[in-house]
Specification:
By secondary structure, the chain is of the alpha/beta class. It is built from ten helices and 15 strands. The protein folds into two domains: about 150 residues, Quinone Oxidoreductase, Chain A, domain 1, CATH 3.90.180; about 130 residues, Medium-chain alcohol dehydrogenases, catalytic domain (Quinone Oxidoreductase, Chain A, domain 1), CATH 3.90.180. Strands 3, 4, 5, 6, 7, 14 and 15 form a seven-stranded mixed beta sheet that branches. It comes from Serinibacter arcticus.
Length: about 325
């Protein structure tokens, strides 16, 4: 095993390259990639807006599924041939990738490689932001609370709806007209058409669905101009968690309203977290969410699978917003 094929970024585009196959160091494994999930962060990286963290591979790809091809020094819990999914800081767009053992997830029985590849980033993002890890609760969602998931049909949103419902929360979600039924089927009690309703009307719908109270948590993948409206949608003591900037990187909010609601705003990202924090997130995901996956209560939606060479087409699907769930590449 001397060479591996990757998709590297060159002049804001992807191109195939052949490089030496990486070797696992202490506490790492080499994965023969069977499937790689596509995320909006990959699009941002190709466009030059979201570089890899220091020490991470320079080419995109934040999650994969495959089999272990080699183990590094000190690795005893994993073995050659084990099926795994992995959360990565980069490097998933290729035929092989090295991953720390703390960021590996066993693949539950009955899950395809494509489905498994769509899980690590979404499960880790949703758990660490909707619930929280250790003494950093962030969203702090609890059973019996109400959560608003913006973009409930996307790769992250579709998992967020299912996770929140599985944890006993009441879910309100937004989606486009064609995807309303799909999001409802995932477990959302109320689904609001964000294409046909203005932001102010969505806020009114949220208020009506909560008897005027508002929601305990908003999971916001949009950012930008949605900031002020999302504060309007919060209940007293509510938490707004911003995990994306699809609507822009800047927004305004009324600080007095935030104070009067005793609300909080959190902005977080998963990719730049230290390896130890990611390992803690993955540990919680395996303990608390994988049993729901194994039981079928949480299931990744795979909109399409494409060969690695058609990664740009996969990226365009995300840009156009046509995907319900995730798009996955097959090396």
């Amino acid at each position: 095993m001397t060479d591996t094929t990757i998709l590297e970024v060159h002049d804001a585009a992807l191109r195939a390259a052949t490089v030496p196959t990486p070797q696992p160091g202490p506490g790492e494994v080499l994965i023969a990639v069977a499937a790689a999930g596509v995320n909006r962060a990959d699009l941002m990286q190709v466009a030059g807006h979201y570089p890899s963290p220091p020490g991470a591979p320079a080419h995109p790809g934040l999650e994969v599924a495959g089999t272990i091809a080699a183990v590094g020094e000190g690795v005893t819990a994993w073995h050659d041939g084990d099926r795994v999914a992995a959360l990565l800081a980069g490097g998933g767009y290729g035929t092989h990738v090295v991953a720390p053992v703390g960021q590996l997830l066993p693949i539950p029985e009955g899950l395809s490689d494509a489905e498994a590849a769509a899980l690590p980033e979404a499960l880790a993002t949703v758990w660490s932001n909707l619930v929280g890890v250790g003494d950093r609760p962030v969203g702090g969602l609890r059973a019996g609370e109400t959560v608003l998931v913006l973009g409930g049909a996307g790769g992250i949103g579709s998992i967020a709806v299912q996770v929140a419902a599985a944890l006993g929360a009441r879910v309100i979600a937004t989606a486009s007209t064609a995807k309303l039924d799909a999001v409802r089927d995932l477990g959302a009690a109320v689904v609001i058409d964000h294409r046909e309703r203005t932001p102010g009307e969505v806020t009114a719908d949220v208020r009506e669905a909560t008897d005027g109270r508002g929601v305990d948590v908003v999971l916001d993948v949009l950012g930008g101009g949605a900031l002020a409206e999302n504060v309007h949608r919060l209940a007293s003591g509510g938490r707004l968690v911003v995990i994306g900037t699809q609507a822009g990187r800047r927004g305004e909010l009324d600080l007095l309203e935030l104070m009067q609601r005793r609300a909080s705003v959190h902005g977080t990202t998963l990719r730049a977290r230290p390896a130890a924090e990611k390992a803690a997130v993955v540990h919680d995901v395996v303990a608390h969410l994988l049993p729901h996956v194994a039981a079928g209560r949480i299931r990744p939606l795979v909109h399409a699978t494409l060969p690695l060479a058609r990664a740009e087409e996969a990226h365009q699907m995300l840009r156009d917003g046509v995907a319900t769930g995730s798009v996955v590449l097959l090396p």
